[in-house]
Amino acid sequence: MANPLFWVGGSAIAIVMGLGIYALVSSRNLLKMLIGLNILSKAATLALAIGAYNTNDTGVGQSLMIAVMMVEVVVTAVVLSLIVNVYRHYGSLDTGDLKRLSG
Amino acid sequence: MGGFMPYVWVILLPLIGAVVVAITGIFREEVTGHLAAGFGIINAGLALSMIPFMKTGATARFPWLPGISDFTVVADGLGSFIAITAAVLGSLILIYSLGYMEHEHGKTRYYALVLLFIGAMSGLVLSGSLLTLYFFWETVGICSFSLIGFHYEDPKALKGAIKAFITTRLGDVGLITGILVIYFATTPHTFEISAIMENSSTISPAALSLAAFAMLLGAMGKSAQVPLHIWLPGAMEAPTSVSALIHAATMVNAGVYLVARMYPLFQNVPGWTAAVTWVGVVTLLLAALMAVTAKDIKRMLAFSTVSQLGYMFFAVGTGGILASQFHLVSHAIFKALLFLAAGALIHEAGTRDMDVLSGVSSKMPLTSAMYLIGVMGLSGIPLFSGFFSKDMIFSSALQRGAYVPLVLAVLGAILTFTYSWRSYFKVFRGKPSEVLSHAHEVGMAMRIPMVLLGIGTVTSWLTVGIQSEALEVLGEGIHAVSPLYLLEETFSSPAFLLSITALGFGTLFVIRYDQVFGWLESRAWKALSLVQREFYFEDLYGRILSLAHAVGKGFAALIEGAIAGFSVLLGRTVAFLTRCTDAMDSRLIEGSGRKVGSTVIGSAKLVKRAQTGDLNGNLVRLLIGISVILAIVLVETGGCL
User: Fold this and answer.
1) Does B612 touch chain A (CB under 8 A)?
2) Manganese as a keyword (chain A) (predicted)?
């Protein structure tokens, strides 16, 4: 716990995560929300890297990071295709227009 | 065992022949007759080669139904003689059929059935097991049924066939009952006749008497004894050659054979021998009376057969096994001859009515002479076989002291003399009637068997030596008799007087027939019409059957009513139940359905407000939720992840 990198890394994670969450919550454009989601997952990757460094178990860290990146890419691709479909269907990417599920 | 076994082949060969004939008939119907006759002649030769085996009672055994019954062939004196008779007469009748059936349709059927019959008859009398005996018993029954109904376009033939079938079936129920009772009453259980005789002491008296009387019923059915005789006159619708073979010479003897075969077992059953005697006596007398008044020549011969079978029963009942078997063989020969001669006559004249026929002898001298020889045999003219056999029956009854039945039997003999001679004088003597205008003597195929049988009628008593020797081994007080001894015995015994009395009175009746008949018509027409209506047996059975029909109909109506009532009840119950479920449906199921629906809709209205449709808002709430959970976890774990 006395490791200085823990604090530096921890704050970096917090900042990136905060940026990601802010982008997700504040933007009304689906593409921007996707970018926010990607930033959020970068925070997760960063957390893994720092955790691995901290515990001197870089092998597990590296492999987990690669896995997360893979998942991230796949999720991005699927979400992008969904976004394209939403645009074709509604002619808009504004979340305010996507209210069909409203009760 | 092993080696030459004619007693097996005599069963197998005709059965094989029947199949061969049936198959050949598909391709060439015209050769079936000669083929069948060939089989018949070889079979007759085989049968005659059985004679040396008879004395020892040769046995052949083949595994059949394991644990139940083997297929045993026993060639002892009792069975062999009937088998030989069936085979030899069968071959003669097959030859006769070549002429008689020449212009008939369905020859294949005819010859195949006759061969099947010959094989089955030999099987019946040579069976060592009651089970196989029953099997062959039914087989000859089927042949008889099919051949009576040979002219199946003729409703009369069909009626006769069905009557024969049903009546004999009634007897067969008795036979199978008897066989099964014996099987289960004997320890160890067996169908083997010799084994049953050995273990006869293990059969309880009650079972034995049940079996004895049940088997007597079976024998009465097959041998047309009163009151089950009615099928035999109806059986005369068969071709005459069949009547000669099956309904006169062989099959009807099966019943006599059965009682003679079972005699050692049943003779001590109280009342059994008396029952056999009286069945025989009543039959011989009633049938002879009916024969006197019969107008149809074949019907008369049928009643005569019934009557002569009655003599055989009478003989067995009085313990005269040899006499019964001796009479059986001589009767088979002369009755077959009578039938063949009558058949030749019917073939030419085209009618069987004795009122129409007369003066045949001038047109058909040989047939007429043969009929005359047959009549002499039947009526018991001295030195003809029928005389010796009937005399032997009388003397065995005398020995037993059965005087009352004996008197009736002599009365029967007088009547026998009357009807046989009357038929001869009426049909063959006098002026030729018109129906005979195109008649001429029959062909060779029909002549040869008649002549051979004619010779047999005169000489068959000479075989008494062989027959008595073969029967001697069976015991029952039978001693070997030589023909010479028979002559001496016959003419010196008191029974001879009875035979002569019968002859005398018979002659008187024949000469004075018209006067006697006229007297009866004026003084005792009731009794006469009773005889002419054949003692109302047919009417009685008709009544019984129609009563049974009525009862059955009533029963059917009852059941129908019950079913109808039940249906109505069932319908009402169903309707009621339907109404109940209907109510249940509307109140319970539909009602509850509605309730569930409204509840779901109500709650849905309540919940749907949570669905904002605002993605960003939802995300915020999601994050708040995650934060709360994280906070809780952190607090719980003391800040250590």
Assistant:
1) yes
2) no
> A70: helix, coil or strand?
helix
* Structure-token pair, residue B501: 């009395």
Domain spans in chain A, listed from the N-terminal domain onward: 4-90
The beta-carbon neighbor of A24 closest among B608, B609, B619 is B619
B582 found inside a domain: no
How many domains does chain B fold into?
A: 1
B601 to chain A, minimum CA–CA distance in Å? 13
Q: What is the pLDDT of residues B72-107, one digit of tens each?
A: 888 888 888 899 999 999 999 999 999 998 888 889
Task: Report the pLDDT value the prediction gives residue B253, as an integer from 0 to 100.
Answer: 92
Assess B620–A contact: CB distance below 8 Å, yes or no. Answer: yes
A4-90 has CATH 3.40.50.1820 classification: no
- What is the bridge-based pairing of β-strands B69-75 and B58-65? antiparallel
Q: Which of A21, A100, A102 shows the shortest C-beta gap to B623? A: A21
Using one digit for the tens of pLDDT, what is the confidence trace for B368-393? Answer: 999 999 999 999 888 888 898 998 99
Give strand pairing partners of B400. none
Option in B611, B619, B620 nearest A102 (CB): B611
Shortest CA distance to B506 belongs to which of B384, B420, B424, B414? B414
Omega within 30 of 0 (cis) for the link into B227: yes
What letter would DSSP give residue B383?
T
Domain that holds residue B90: 6-532
Q: Residue B1: what pLDDT?
A: 44
Query: Which residues on chain B are in Cβ contact (under 8 Å) with A79?
Result: none
B35 occurs within a structural domain: yes
8 A C-beta contact, residue B425 and residue B507? no
- What are the tens digits of pLDDT across the range B566-593? 889 999 999 999 888 888 877 777 778 8
Residue B59 belongs to some domain of the structure = yes
Looking at every residue in chain B, the average pLDDT score rounds to 88
- Is a pLDDT exceeding 60 seen at residue B202? yes
- Strand ranges, E, within B257-343: none
- Name the minimum distance, in Å, from the CA of B573 to any CA of chain A: 53
**What percentage of chain B has pLDDT greater than the value 90?**
41
b/e B369-403 (16+ beta carbons within 10 angstroms → b): bbbbbbbbbbbbbeebbbbbbbbbbbbbbbebebe
* B614 interfacial to chain A (CB closer than 8 Å): yes
Residues in A touching B639 (Cβ below 8 Å): none
ipTM metric: 0.77
Q: Scanning every residue of chain B, which has its alpha carbon at the shortest distance from the alpha carbon of A96?
A: B614
Confidence of residue B640 (pLDDT cuts 50, 70, 90): low
User: Could you give phi then psi for residue B75, rounded to 5 degrees?
Assistant: -100, 75
For residue B78, what are its two tokens? Answer: 């009792």
Counted across chains A and B, CB pairs separated by less than 8 A come out at 33
Residue A2 is predicted with a pLDDT of: 53
> How far B606 CA sits from the closest chain A CA (Å)?
10
Place of tokens 């704050």: A11
Is position B598 within any domain?
no
B440 CA to centre of own chain: 36
